[in-house]
């Protein structure tokens, strides 16, 4: 009896039309294009400007793009997972709303929050459901409207983040393709270095918390960078070693797009040539939960059946990990 694995069979994506370039940021905060580009690799990011539109708006667009490309009806989907750090509303599930809006009437749905590792963790969740035999079609969407939690007078964070959404459909595979191995980690020490202070159960929203700008992202950039560089590189090298992969065996590194220097360090540790590294940070910035699926969306036409992909991510919490996946189709 052949082992059932979970393979990606379609991808979709969406980024807003509005482009916030480094040149525009120069007019908003004390920074400049050269400084941003040198330290992060970011040239521009997309910002969702539509009125009354939240994370679900982009998640729905990415899902509809995927469904159209795959040529299936949303009613065939069994489960919808939305990986996000910026849900539309507290309590009410963004995933449940997205599932209803796209017509996934036979699916159950929930949100997953692991900061920038959310989509990576979502891949693991999808694979578990598929491998169990309980479900056949699992839709994982990574989406974040980071502009909703960024202080655009804080130059340490506003230069980094952008908005966007990407989606991937997971289905059973018996050819040995799909998700092969994973190594996922977390460490609560990270809570002090990357967070939003107010709006949770410890410090509920008040006039004072709003006045003090405590509902925006705070990041200790140096500490996060240090942890991210070592941990993303470590898990990526480990997943290769554990599966007897050399740099020649890896067709693509799919790294979280937080900082070009972190991406380069991970690729160097793996011995992977820069031409095999998926990059779109220059155009989108850090879209948090959306970075990994948006890379697949941008590079889909270059992917070939049987390609070895190494995914790597690092996020607040701290959360991080790596996944080894064999690509299942030719575009």
Describe what this molecule looks like in 3D.
This protein is α/β, with parallel strands linked by helices. The chain contains eleven helices and 13 strands. The protein has helices at residues 22-26, 33-40, 55-70, 94-102, 118-131, 155-158, 207-211, 221-242, 260-270, 281-284, 291-299; strands at 5-14, 18-21, 44-47, 79-83, 108-112, 138-145, 163-173, 178-186, 194-195, 218-219, 252-255, 308-315, 319-326.
Order of helices and strands: EEHHEHEHEHEHEEEHEHEHHHEE
Structural class designation: alpha/beta
Distance between the termini: 29 Å
Low-confidence stretches: none
Strand order in the largest sheet: 1-7-6-4-5
Mean pLDDT: 97
Question: Topology of this protein?
Answer:
Layout: E1 5-14, E2 18-21, H1 22-26, H2 33-40, E3 44-47, H3 55-70, E4 79-83, H4 94-102, E5 108-112, H5 118-131, E6 138-145, H6 155-158, E7 163-173, E8 178-186, E9 194-195, H7 207-211, E10 218-219, H8 221-242, E11 252-255, H9 260-270, H10 281-284, H11 291-299, E12 308-315, E13 319-326
Helix pairs in contact: 3-4, 8-9
């Amino acid at each position: 009896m052949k082992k059932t694995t979970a393979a990606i069979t379609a991808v979709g994506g969406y980024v807003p039309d509005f482009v916030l370039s480094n040149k525009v940021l120069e007019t908003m905060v004390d920074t400049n294009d050269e400084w941003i580009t040198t330290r992060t690799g970011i040239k521009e990011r997309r910002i969702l400007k539509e009125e009354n539109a939240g994370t679900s708006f982009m998640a729905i667009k990415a899902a509809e793009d995927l469904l159209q490309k795959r040529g299936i009806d949303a009613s065939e989907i069994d489960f919808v997972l939305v990986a996000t750090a910026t849900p539309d509303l507290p309590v009410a599930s963004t995933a449940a709303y997205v599932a209803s809006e796209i017509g996934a009437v036979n699916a159950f749905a929930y949100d997953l929050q692991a900061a920038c590792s959310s989509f990576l963790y979502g891949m693991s969740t999808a694979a578990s459901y598929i491998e169990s035999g309980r479900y056949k079609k699992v839709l994982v969407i990574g989406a974040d409207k980071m502009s909703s939690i960024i202080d655009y007078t804080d130059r340490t964070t506003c230069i980094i983040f952008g908005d966007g959404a990407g989606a991937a459909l997971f289905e059973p595979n018996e050819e040995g393709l799909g998700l092969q191995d994973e190594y996922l980690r977390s460490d609560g020490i990270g809570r002090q270095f990357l967070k939003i202070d107010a709006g949770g159960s410890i410090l509920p929203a008040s006039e004072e918390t709003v006045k003090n700008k405590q509902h925006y992202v705070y990041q200790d950039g140096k500490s996060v960078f240090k942890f991210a560089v070592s941990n993303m590189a470590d898990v990526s090298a480990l997943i290769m070693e554990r599966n007897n992969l050399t740099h020649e065996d890896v067709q693509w590194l799919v790294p979280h797009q937080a900082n070009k220097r972190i991406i380069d360090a991970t690729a160097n540790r793996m011995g992977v040539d820069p031409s095999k590294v998926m990059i779109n940070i220059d155009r989108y910035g850090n879209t948090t939960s959306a970075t990994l699926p948006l890379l697949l969306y941008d590079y889909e036409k270059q992917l070939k059946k049987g390609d070895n992909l190494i995914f790597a991510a690092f996020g607040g919490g701290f959360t991080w990990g790596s996944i080894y996946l064999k690509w299942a189709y030719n575009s």
